[in-house]
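#structure-requests
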Amino acid sequence: MKKRNVGGFLYGLMFFLVFRISSWICSVPMWLTLILHFAIGLPIFWFWLTLAAWILAGVIRYLTICFARWGADTAPDPPKENKNPYS
């Protein structure tokens, strides 16, 4: 059985979250609720809720990618012994 590198998972998760922060188009609802908080007095709860949803979506996407990679990471079957006496 192959030993997994847990540190690689955490570094990948942090990289993915930083990449997601840099993608501003996905964070528009979060920034919009923060602006509305200061402009019209929208409760700050909505900002924290959109921030949590944004981070949760990133974590779920990253875990899906890791799960797909884990499934494709299986080792191939070892070659079978050739029992043909004429080869």
